[in-house]
Each structure stands twice: as C-alpha cells, then as structure tokens.
Inverse folding.
C-alpha cells in the first residue's frame, strides 16, 4: 500500500512539474501551434513521463532520470514553442533546478521543525504527503502568476553575442545536480551550491531576457526605418509614373490637335507622315512593365530603370495583377526589398554576369513570386543569411522584412544558393485581411 501511494505521489509530482515547465515556457516563448495539436503533444509528453516515472526511473538510477526529464522538457519546448535552443535550454534547466531545490529544502525544513530524521519524515505518510502536495500547488501557482505577468518574447533565430554565456549557466547547474547524486554524503554542501546557483540562474535569465527585449526592440526600430525608406521610394516612383502619364496625355492631346489641323487643311501627306512619327514614338512606351496594378507597376518600372542604369539585364515575366486583393503596402515592400537585394548582389558581379530574372504571376487566388540572380557565394545558416557588412545590425533587414510579411499571411517561401545563383520563391495566398 505504501509503495502504491509512493508511486501515485511520484506520478503527481512528475505531471505537476511538467505543468510548471509548460507554464514557464508560455511565459518566455510564443507557441508554434494553436488548438488541439498543442494539447495532443502535451498529452503524449504526460504519458511518456508517467510511464518513465512509474516503471523505469527507479531501475536505472538518478543520472538517467535527470537526463530523461531534462531531455523530455527540452523536446517539449522546442516542439511547441518558437525559440532559440540556448534560451530554451536555459529556461528548462533553471526551472528543473528550482523544482529540485524546492523539494530538498522544504523536506529539510520539515525535518528540522518536527525534529524528525529523514527516514521518519518519509514514513510519516500524512505529513510527507501534505507537504509534498502543498509544495507542488505553491510552485504551480507561482508559475501561473509568472505566466500571467510575463508576456512571451519572440526573438527569432538570430545569433547573439551572449549565447555562450546563456549555455554556461544551465550546464553548470546540471553538473551540480549530478554531483548531488554522485556524492550523497556531501549532499547538503552541494545543495547549498545549487541553491546559490539557482538564484544566479534566475537573475541571469531575467537579465538576458531584458537584453533580448532590448535587441528585438532595436531591430524593430531599424526594420521600421527600412520599411519607411522603402515606402518613400515607392511614393516617389508612383509620383514619377503619374507625372510621366500626365506628360504623355498632354503630348497626346497636342498631337491630336496638330493632326486634326493638318486634316482640316487637306495636307494628307503631311498628316500621314505625322501619324507615322506618332506611331514610332508610341512604341517607346513609358512603362517597361505593365501589370495593370499601379503600385506594383511603379515599383517594377522604377527598379527596372535603376537596374538598366547599373548595367543589369532586368528580365521580367508578369501577368495581369489588377484583381490582386493583397494590401499594396505589403506587396510593394516585399518586391522592393527582394529586387534591391538582387540588384545589390548583381552590382558586385562582372558586367557580363549582371542579370535578374523576375517572375510575378497571379492566378487561382495565389501570387507566385520568383526572383533569381547571380551572386557571390552566400552562406545560409539556420534560415538566416550571414552578412559580410561592417555593422550587421544595421543591414540585412530587407529579407527579414520580407519574411515577417510573408509569415503574417502564412505564405510558403524558400530561398537558396545554387550554382552561383540566389533563388527566392514564394506562393502568397491572396487576401485583403
């Protein structure tokens, strides 16, 4: 009976500890999946930790127990939440260590208060069970309070200068926990070390979280400035296109007046010659590309002329985009950033190798974008392109802006470097929301 109750308490402890880990993960990381899938994965994790807690952990020693539980929590975190691996490891190990320390020190406090040996305390089932359940309830409440008042921070996958530091702390903590199990005769000394390290871990975690928040805010400001610059360029392009259209309309009216005058005077030969000249001039259209979408035409033509001035062969393939419902601001930001990146890469190539292939096709509720250009070798790591510029923080936001916008619309996109070419493709569902 006592053994069965011990297994029940162990199972409850494992499940509540998992609940604490999930609550704290909710506090630090945005979720990947919403709805039933999230809870199905949680249920699988609960089942796994329950089976291990009852049937396996007592048979293979504490080292395996530590490794299994920390690995399980870590896999849960990276499966359900959006975060870098180092932040995930730091939060998981810190929570695990605090839970472990709370267990030891509450038990030690009870043995001191009631003047019991450790064995007497363990076999005092009512007292031990009450303290055990009260401790778990308290830890869960604290975790839920943190979850309520600490909003998760989306940091992406960008590497930070402090990543090595954020790895040292959890590894040191795991080493101390292992030492506790390895040297049971010196347990109190190692438990004091762990308690001190718990405090250091919590402070370091909050400090690094603040640094992450500051870095994200700064990046958002730079990205916002980049977007404002892009929008300014687009407005200028629209203005130039409108001015050109007005000039062409004015010239066309003057030409019609001249042609009408020649016909009224009966000068048929001169009228024919003038009409022929009008046709030849009309063939030199003001627009390189015409998609029947004014905002997109302005961007494509602006970049087309800019590319020509830089000796870049701009190859466009488009169709009718007049029915496109996507917000013009987002579409033009994406196209502008992609074309700027492609042209910037081309300028660094020999003149005979400067070309950009642009394909923008709309059909069946989908905007398909494909941009290919030659470039020097590009290193893509973890979905990020390593920049070679002097100040990485102030550059590279073009592709970041593109990814942010496409993710907002759940678009599918890929980019890669193959055979000396950078290839970007996207399938963007058409919606005005």
């Amino acid at each position: 009976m006592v053994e069965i109750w011990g297994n029940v308490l162990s199972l409850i402890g494992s499940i509540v500890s998992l609940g604490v880990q999930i609550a704290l993960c909710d506090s630090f990381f945005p979720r990947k999946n919403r709805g039933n899938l999230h809870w199905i994965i949680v249920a699988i994790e609960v089942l796994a930790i329950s089976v291990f807690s009852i049937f396996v952990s007592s048979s293979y020693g504490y080292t395996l127990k530590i490794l299994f539980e920390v690995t399980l929590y870590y896999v849960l975190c990276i499966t359900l939440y959006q975060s870098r691996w180092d932040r995930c490891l730091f939060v998981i190990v810190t929570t695990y260590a605090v839970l472990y320390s709370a267990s030891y020190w509450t038990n030690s406090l009870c043995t001191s208060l009631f003047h019991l040996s450790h064995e007497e305390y363990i076999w005092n089932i009512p007292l031990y069970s009450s303290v055990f359940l009260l401790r778990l309830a308290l830890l869960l409440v604290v975790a839920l309070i943190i979850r309520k008042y600490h909003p998760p921070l989306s940091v992406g996958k960008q590497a930070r200068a402090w990543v090595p530091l954020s790895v040292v702390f959890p590894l040191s903590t795991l080493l101390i926990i292992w030492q506790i199990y390895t040297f049971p005769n010196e347990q109190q000394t190692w438990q004091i070390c762990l308690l001190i390290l718990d405090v250091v871990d919590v402070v370091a975690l909050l400090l690094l979280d603040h640094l992450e928040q500051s870095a994200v805010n700064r990046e958002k400001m730079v990205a916002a400035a980049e977007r404002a610059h892009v929008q300014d360029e687009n407005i200028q392009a629209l203005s130039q296109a409108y001015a050109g259209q007005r000039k062409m309309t004015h010239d066309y009216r003057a030409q019609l007046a001249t042609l009408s005058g020649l016909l009224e005077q009966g000068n048929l030969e001169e009228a024919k010659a003038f009409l022929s000249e009008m046709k030849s001039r009309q063939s030199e259209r003001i627009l390189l590309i015409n998609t029947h979408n004014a905002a997109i035409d302005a961007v494509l033509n602006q970049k087309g002329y800019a590319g020509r001035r830089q000796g870049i062969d701009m190859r466009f393939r488009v169709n009718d985009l007049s029915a496109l419902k996507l917000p013009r601001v987002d579409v033009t930001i994406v196209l502008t950033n992609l074309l700027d990146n492609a042209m910037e890469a081309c300028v660094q190539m020999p003149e005979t190798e400067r070309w950009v292939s642009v394909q923008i096709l709309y059909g069946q509720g989908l905007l398909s974008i494909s941009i290919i250009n030659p470039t020097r070798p590009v290193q893509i790591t973890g979905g990020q392109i390593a920049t070679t510029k002097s100040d990485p923080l102030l550059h590279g936001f073009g592709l970041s802006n593109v990814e942010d916008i496409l993710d907002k619309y759940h678009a599918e996109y890929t980019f890669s470097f193959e055979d000396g070419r950078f290839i970007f493709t996207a399938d963007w569902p058409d919606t005005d929301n």
In short: Residues 388-397 have pLDDT under 50 and may be disordered. The two ends are 61 Å apart (CA to CA). Residues 187-264 form the longest helix (78 residues).
